[in-house]
TrEMBL record:
InterPro entries per UniProt: AAA+_ATPase, P-loop_NTPase, T2SS/T4SS_dom, T4SS_GSP_E_ATPase
Family: Belongs to the GSP E family.
Region (Disordered) residue spans: 1-25
Start and end residues of each AAA+ ATPase domain: 244-398
CDD domains reported for this sequence: VirB11-like_ATPase (cd01130)
Highest taxon of the lineage: Bacteria
Organism: Paraburkholderia lacunae
Residue spans of biased composition, Pro residues class: 1-12
Family matches, as Pfam families: T2SSE
SMART domains reported for this sequence: AAA (SM00382)
Protein name per UniProt: Secretion system protein E
Any one Gene Ontology molecular-function term assigned to this protein's record: ATP hydrolysis activity
Length: 469
C-alpha cells in the first residue's frame, strides 16, 4: 500500500521541509504549540476523532516532530522509523507526565506514521480490501464504498488544514500541485489508486478528496463471470474479440467498472505487440512486457506547459504502436482515436461515459465535432462505423453489483444510420423486485459480423460455439 513506500522527496511536501517528518511538523496543528499544559483525560473512541483532536495527541505529536532528527529520517521506510517513533512517544509521555495506556500508545504511533508516510487518518481504509472508494468531504466526514454501497466511517481529520496537507502531499508525489491558485487536481497513489482533489473556495465545506482504489486482485474476464458480472459466454466472446484485435469501446456511467473491464480485456493482448496507454492519471495495469504508459500534464502556475490527451494520441501515432489504449475519451481526442483505429492500429480500446451503446455513438459524434466542426455528420458516422467493432455496456445496478448489460456490434451503415446488433443483453426480472437485482444474460444467437475476422485468426469455431444459446 501507499504507506509502505518511501517518504516523498523533501521539496514535494513543504517548501521549507526536509523530510516527511518535518512536513508534518510544519502543519498548523504542530507548529508553535507549547508542550506545557497537561490535557484533560479523554477516553479514545472506536474511531480516531477523540485521538487526533485530543490535547494528549497534540502534545505528543508536537514533541515528536520537535525532537526528531529530520536528516536521519530522510530515505527511511515506515518500518525503519517505527521503533524510533515509539521510543519518542514513551519519552515525551514520561517527561510530560502523561498517563498513556499501551493501546493509546499504539494508536498514537500509528497515526504519527500515517502522517509521515501515508495519507493521514484514512490510511487504514486504503488497507481494507473491501473498500473500493474513499470519499473525504472536509475534515469531519469520511465515506467509503463497500460492495457498491456508501457507508459513513468514524474516521476524521484534525481540521481542514490537515486535509489540505494530505492532498498536497499526494499531488506532490506525482509532480503536481494543488493550492488556492490551482484548486483542482487529478493524481494517483503509489499503488495506482486514482485521486481527485478539490479545495476551497471551490469546495464550500472544506477540502474534498476522492480516492478510487486500485484492486489488489487481478480481475480477469473469467473471474468477472464467476462473480456474476457477465455470463461465461460473454466472457468467451470478449476474450476472442481482444484476440482478434477488434476495436472496442467500453461504455458506462461513473463508477460502473469501465477501467476494470478494460484491464481485464487487455490480458489477451499478445506479448509481441507494442501497446501504448494514454491516461489523465495512470490506472491501467497491463501485464504485457512491451507497454509504454503516457500521462497528461496540467498547466503550470503561468498557464504553460500543459499536455492534453489529444497531444499524446498524436504523438503515440509516431511511436510505432500496435495498439493504443486510451483510458477515457472525453473530448477532441476522439477524432484522433478514430483516425488511429482506421489506419492500422487494430485492437485499440477506450472507455466513454454513456448510458447505452447508441448514446455512446452519439457522444462520439459530438466529440469529433468538437475537434473538427467542418466535418459533415455523414462522414463522421462512416468513420465510426468503420473504426469501432464492439461497444460493451457496463452498469452499476441498484444492488451495487456491476454487470455487463449489453455487448453491441457495429455492422455498417444503412443510409445515414449506423446499424448495430446486440450480441448479448441482460434481461432484468421485474417480477422479482428486492434488494438484489434478478435477471438473466441472453445471447442473440446471431452470427457476428466479425466472424470472418475470427476465421482469419483461426478462432471462428470457438466464436460460433460461444454464441450458441
Amino acid at each position: 500500500m501507499f504507506g509502505q513506500k518511501q517518504p516523498p522527496p523533501p521539496d514535494a511536501v513543504e517548501p521549507q521541509a526536509t523530510s516527511a517528518a518535518t512536513a508534518a511538523a510544519a502543519s498548523p496543528i504542530g507548529a508553535g504549540s507549547a508542550v506545557t499544559a497537561l490535557p484533560e483525560r479523554t477516553p479514545l473512541a472506536q474511531g480516531n476523532e477523540a485521538l487526533v483532536r485530543s490535547d494528549l495527541f497534540r502534545i505528543i505529536r508536537t514533541g515528536v516532530f520537535t525532537s526528531m532528527n529530520a536528516s536521519a529520517a530522510v530515505g527511511k521506510t515506515r518500518e525503519q522509523m517505527k521503533p524510533g517513533v515509539e521510543q519518542l512517544v514513551l519519552e515525551i509521555a514520561a517527561h510530560e507526565r502523561l498517563n498513556v495506556t499501551i493501546s493509546e500508545q499504539s494508536q498514537i504511533v500509528s497515526e504519527l506514521l500515517n502522517d509521515m508516510f501515508g495519507v493521514g487518518p484514512i490510511e487504514p481504509l486504503l488497507a481494507d480490501d473491501s473498500v473500493t472508494d474513499v470519499l473525504v468531504n472536509g475534515p469531519d466526514q469520511v465515506y467509503v464504498e463497500r460492495h457498491g454501497r456508501l457507508e459513513l466511517t468514524p474516521y476524521k481529520f484534525r481540521d481542514n488544514a490537515h486535509v489540505v496537507s494530505v492532498a498536497q502531499r499526494i499531488a506532490a508525489g506525482v509532480g503536481r500541485r494543488v493550492d488556492e491558485s490551482s484548486p483542482m487536481v487529478d493524481a494517483r497513489l503509489a499503488d495506482g489508486s486514482r485521486v481527485n482533489v478539490i479545495l476551497p473556495p471551490l469546495a464550500i465545506r472544506g477540502a474534498c478528496i476522492a480516492i478510487r482504489k486500485f484492486s489488489k486482485r487481478n480481475i480477469t474476464l473469467h473471474r468477472m463471470a464467476q462473480q456474476g458480472n457477465m455470463s461465461a459466454q460473454m466472457s468467451n466472446v470478449l476474450k476472442l474479440a481482444s484476440t482478434c484485435r477488434l476495436n472496442v469501446i467500453v461504455s458506462g456511467g461513473t463508477g460502473s467498472g469501465k477501467t476494470t473491464l478494460l484491464n481485464a480485456l487487455s490480458h489477451f493482448i499478445g506479448d509481441r505487440e507494442r501497446v501504448i496507454t494514454i491516461e489523465d492519471a495512470a490506472e491501467l495495469q497491463l501485464q504485457q512486457p512491451h507497454v509504454v504508459s503516457l500521462e497528461t500534464r496540467p498547466e503550470n502556475a503561468e498557464g504553460l506547459g500543459g499536455v492534453a490527451q489529444r497531444d499524446l494520441v498524436r504523438n503515440a501515432l509516431r511511436m510505432r504502436p500496435d495498439r493504443i489504449i486510451l483510458g477515457e475519451t472525453r473530448g477532441p481526442e476522439a477524432f484522433d482515436v478514430l483516425q488511429a483505429m482506421n489506419t492500422g492500429h487494430d485492437g485499440s480500446m477506450t472507455t466513454i461515459h454513456a448510458n447505452t451503446p447508441r448514446d455512446a455513438i452519439t457522444r462520439l459524434e459530438s466529440m469529433v465535432m468538437m475537434a473538427n466542426g467542418n466535418l459533415p455528420l455523414m462522414s463522421i458516422r462512416r468513420q465510426i462505423a468503420s473504426a469501432v467493432h464492439l461497444i460493451v455496456q457496463i452498469e452499476r445496478m441498484r444492488d451495487g453489483v456491476r454487470r455487463v448489460t449489453r455487448i453491441t456490434e457495429l455492422v455498417g451503415m444503412e443510409g445515414e444510420v449506423i446499424i448495430t446488433q446486440d450480441l448479448f443483453t441482460f434481461r432484468y426480472d421485474a417480477s422479482a423486485y428486492n434488494e438484489e437485482v434478478k435477471g438473466v444474460f441472453e445471447t442473440a444467437a446471431l452470427r457476428p459480423a466479425f466472424s470472418e475476422r475470427a476465421a482469419y485468426y483461426g478462432v471462428e469455431e470457438a466464436l460460433l460455439e460461444a454464441m450458441r444459446p
